[in-house]
Specification:
Blueprint: E1 4-8, H1 15-24, E2 33-37, H2 41-57, E3 63-67, H3 70-74, E4 79-82, H4 88-101, H5 113-137, E5 143-146, H6 151-161, E6 166-168, H7 172-188, E7 207-214, E8 217-225, E9 228-229, H8 234-239, H9 242-247, H10 249-258, E10 261-262, H11 266-270, H12 280-283, H13 299-320, H14 335-345, E11 349-356, E12 369-377, E13 380-382, H15 391-413, H16 416-425, H17 427-432, H18 435-448, H19 457-469, H20 489-493
Parallel strand pairs: 1-2, 1-4, 2-3, 4-5, 5-6
Antiparallel strand pairs: 7-8, 8-9, 8-10, 11-12, 12-13
Helix pairs in contact: 1-14, 2-13, 4-5, 4-18, 5-6, 5-15, 6-15, 15-16, 16-18, 18-19
């Protein structure tokens, strides 16, 4: 009997098609019933057309049904994915632009800092609605897999306030794993040409990793190669690697000072900490503009905007292009399809997942969402004991967990006091702004995003009045230390 996979936010440009392709690459899952839901009829229609074309070209029995009615899309689902972006690019823009006026310069702004906190305020009420619908119409043993950010906050609220079995997924660990493989490969082949018979090419199977922490602040606490833990040697290798020195300055510096390598990219990591983005004239010392993820101001917003513009303009061309090939060779490392395969076939899958801690990391709060190694089989998700994180790494994570705790409680109850406190406790916001600036920034973001914040309905008018009556404090930075312009369609095509 075919399984049913529902996707909330299926109008996502790249993720939905990749997820579908990954799933149907498994022989036992080629008759999967896909249910796509989105609030945008046009985005949903475009993705569904591309998906249907791809399935037909691959001669697969899988089907795609799309619906603007979320409950209909979730009915009878065995697996549900959330890839939604509440507020879309419009709200995302305010996550980046308003904090800039107060000197808070973010690269991504979707996990912590001012932008991530507000993204959570927009996403948490819908997350509770998603779970209510899943409980009402999905299968009783449904697994809800959340890919949307802020990962920890959304996964936290689903597990705390609902009975839906919810797992958070991210690809950060896999990305860093690949980087570690390259670093070790370069070292063991030093002085040997790539075309020489003695050159050794490594894969991820050759370098075993254990990572633990919280989403986007997870640490490689063990990096095993040929029976040895290379963790103590990594800093030396990073410091002589030109690419790491140019593009990963924050990650290298954090390893220098805390002893462990972070899973998260340079730009992302820099905005979760109080040290690297607090002075506009120093930000460029810690980032690179070779890629947006290396630290560009509002880099992810720019990329998302460019891709959406490109997609909407070039959709007819995409339909004329060669369909995607769905087979094992083209399967991605995204956890979702591998988890489904393991649960449905019994094949064991090992990955890193976002789950309720429950004592897995013994020096982080039990109720927090942690990112830890786990195994999946027919019995479900199995999480082993990690034990204590290195003390410094745990301290970094604990600060962010308390911000998450405040933000989750604020979003659930529409509590402006807790929201302000979340802003104040955030490492970068607190490093840049004084209390009066923080409170006014919260007011300004609340008013700008009022359409997506129904829980704060009673607070908006008062916030508007304060913004009218009080001196304006947000007059520091308007463009950002490293902002780049959005490329035109013509530039993207060239």
């Amino acid at each position: 009997m075919a399984i049913t996979v529902a996707v909330i936010g299926a109008g996502s440009i790249g993720f939905t098609r990749r997820l579908m392709g990954d799933i149907v690459s498994v022989p036992e899952l080629q008759d999967t019933k896909f249910m796509f839901h989105d609030v945008s009829e046009s985005n949903l229609a475009m993705i569904a057309q591309l998906a249907e074309r791809d399935l037909k070209a691959n001669s697969l029995p899988a089907t795609v049904t799309r619906s603007l009615d979320r409950k209909r899309a979730l009915e009878g689902a065995d697996y549900v994915f959330n890839v939604s972006r509440i507020g879309g690019l419009q709200a995302f823009g305010t996550d980046i632009d308003i904090p800039l006026k107060y000197g808070v310069d973010q690269c991504v702004g979707d996990t912590l800092c001012a932008g991530g906190i507000m993204y959570g305020q927009r996403g948490i009420p819908p997350m509770l609605d998603f779970c209510a619908d899943i409980e009402a119409v999905a299968n009783s043993d449904v697994l809800f897999m959340n890919y949307a950010n802020p990962m920890a906050m959304l996964t936290w609220v689903a597990n705390k306030y609902t009975n839906v079995n919810t797992l958070g997924l991210c690809h950060g660990v896999q990305g860093g794993h690949g980087l570690l493989v390259r670093i070790i490969q370069d070292h063991i082949n030093e002085g040997v040409a790539e075309d020489h018979p003695d050159y050794r090419r490594l894969t991820k199977n050759d370098v075993n990793i254990v990572a633990a922490g919280i989403n986007h602040q997870t640490w490689y606490i063990k990096v095993m190669f040929e029976g040895d833990d290379w963790t103590p040697r990594l800093l030396q290798l990073f410091e002589k690697d030109k690419q790491m020195q140019e593009n990963e300055k924050v990650r290298v510096d954090m390893m220098r000072r805390f002893g462990y390598f972070s899973t998260e990219s340079n730009g992302h990591l820099s905005e979760y900490l109080p040290w690297y983005r607090k002075r506009s004239d120093e930000i460029v010392d810690w980032i690179s503009l070779n890629s947006w993820i290396d630290g560009e101001t509002g880099g992810y917003l720019r990329i998302c905007t460019e891709h959406r513009n490109w997609f909407e303009t070039d959709f007819p061309r995409w339909m004329q292009q060669q369909p995607s090939l769905f087979d094992a060779k083209h399967r991605s490392e995204e956890h979702g399809s591998w988890i489904i395969e393991a649960r449905e076939t019994g094949r064991i899958y090992r990955g890193h997942f976002n789950v309720v801690n429950n004592g897995c990391i013994t020096n982080l709060p039990a109720d927090a969402i942690v990112e830890v190694p786990g195994y999946v089989d027919r019995l479900g998700i199995n999480i082993p004991l990690v034990g204590d994180l290195p003390l410094g790494c745990a301290a970094v994570c604990n600060v962010s967990i308390q911000v998450q705790r405040l933000a989750v409680a604020a979003a659930v109850d529409g509590d402006l006091t807790l929201l302000r406190q979340a802003f104040m406790m955030d490492p970068l916001v607190g490093a840049v702004c004084n209390p009066a600036e923080i409170w006014q920034m919260a007011d300004e973001m609340l008013v700008a995003q009022a359409d997506w914040l129904p829980q704060y309905r009673d607070e908006v008018a008062a916030a508007e009045q304060r913004l009218t009556d009080e001196p304006h404090l947000g007059n520091r930075q308007t463009e950002g230390a490293a902002r780049q312009k959005i490329k035109s369609i013509e530039e993207l095509r060239s």
